[in-house]
Design a protein that fits this description.
Elements (H helix, E strand, L loop, with lengths): L3 H10 L5 E5 L4 E4 L1 H7 L8 H5 L2 H13 L3 E8 L4 E11 L9 E8 L1 H36 L6 H33 L7 E4 H18 L3 E5 L6 E4 L1 H18 L5 E12 L4 E10 L21 H6 L6 H11 L3 E6 L5 E8 L1
Parallel strand pairs: 7-9
Antiparallel strand pairs: 1-2, 1-5, 3-4, 4-5, 6-8, 9-10, 10-12, 11-12
Bound molecules: adenosine-5'-diphosphate.
């Protein structure tokens, strides 16, 4: 028959969580490979307090050894790339260890992703509240002024109502973008299956954005082979992608500048390893400092916060673009440099 510790070790190795056994001598008498990856290769026969060191987990193990009742604690670590969080369960095991006096089985469950999701949700709520609070505060201030000091001042009233309209429109855009984002997230796993003519979509997008471009004195050009170019996609969502990108190019581009759309057809795309259509939207505006590029598609991330707010931006446009492109199993590429304009390329599988 095998030595009892070998049996225990074999059993621990079958548990898909870092797990170790502490006996009455307060030493780690057995551990599995996952526990050694987490805590170090030489942990057996050492006192558990020299290995684990964090008071909550020490209290839990000591308590469990004392009264035999299950305990849980949190254990914080770092895997080299990020901080990690574990829920540690301590359960009493009778009849093991020195003089078969029993021990405590300690197992670590990685809950880092749960913690991260919670943090993301908290950040998101805080961001949304902050974004809504600014226009709301302005609206409340103007209502007060209209009731009091500006009650009989017709020109001031007209001016304030204009500003209030602008602030209400900002809130409306924010709520609209939040709803789009949640709708896109909801069906991100469902593959679109309609046949969409990309060139027709782009022409119609450009047509509806023409007044905005004219206002900024910006000319728009579409460089595409004549005739339809079909892909499998969701027409409304793709239209939203192109609208957001072209709108940004107009908003952030130079007055009197140019926005260029270039459509290319690829039999075998290097990025997708499949046939694709690439749509590049390029402007000749001030561009984006490359330090911002990796975070540009995060919700509420703004490279130039002042300018975005001044132009009524919600900070959600590119987050929506990225989700839609992901749903289409495509890619979004951004390249830019200060003073060099910005170029956003959507790569979509056919
Ligand atoms: P916003 O509503 O602020 O425009 P987006 O998600 O659409 O939000 O864009 C995020 C940020 O990326 C913007 O705040 C802006 O700083 C930057 N950006 C987007 N497109 C361009 C562009 N064409 N030129 C320069 N900066 C851009």
């Amino acid at each position: 028959m095998s030595h009892p510790v070998d049996l225990i070790r074999a059993a621990l190795d079958a548990i898909p969580l870092p797990t170790l056994l502490v006996d009455r001598t307060e030493r780690i008498v057995a551990s599995n490979a996952d526990a050694q990856t987490l805590l170090g290769a030489q942990i057996e026969n050492r006192h558990f307090a020299t290995i684990l060191r964090q008071p909550p987990i020490l209290d839990a193990i000591e308590g469990c050894l004392r009264d035999g009742l299950p305990k849980t604690a949190q254990y914080l670590s770092n895997d080299g790339a990020q901080d990690t969080t574990f829920t540690v369960s301590c359960r009493f095991v009778p009849g093991v260890g020195v003089r078969e006096a029993g021990g405590v089985l300690v197992s670590f469950q990685d809950i880092t992703h749960v913690e991260q999701a919670g943090q993301m949700r908290r950040d998101f709520v805080a961001n949304v509240s902050h974004e809504l609070r600014t226009p709301l505060t302005a609206l409340m201030g103007f209502i007060e002024t209209l009731r009091g000091p500006a009650k009989d001042d017709a020109p001031a009233r007209a001016r304030f109502l204009d500003i209030m309209e602008g602030e209400a429109a900002r809130m409306n855009r924010l709520v609209g973008d939040l709803l789009s984002l949640s709708r896109v997230e909801e069906d991100e796993r469902v593959r679109p299956k309609d046949q969409v003519d990309i060139v027709a979509q782009l022409n119609s997008t450009l047509h509806s954005l023409r007044p905005l471009a004219d206002e900024a004195g910006i000319s728009m050009t579409l460089d595409a082979a004549p005739g339809p170019l079909m892909i499998t996609g969701d027409g409304d969502q793709l239209r939203q992608v192109f609208t957001n990108l072209v709108e940004n190019a107009i908003k952030y581009g130079n007055r009197g500048g140019e926005v260029r759309l270039i459509v290319t057809d690829h039999d075998r795309d290097g990025a997708l390893r499949a046939p694709s259509v690439r749509v590049q939207v390029a402007d000749d505006g001030p561009g984006i400092d490359p330090v911002h590029l990796p975070r540009l598609t995060e919700r509420f991330y703004r490279a130039d916060s002042h300018r975005s707010r001044e132009l009524g931006g919600t900070g959600l446009g590119l987050a929506i673009v990225k989700h839609i492109v992901n749903r289409h199993r495509g890619r979004l590429r951004v390249s830019s440099d200060v003073g060099q304009g910005a170029s956003f390329t959507v790569i979509l599988p056919k």
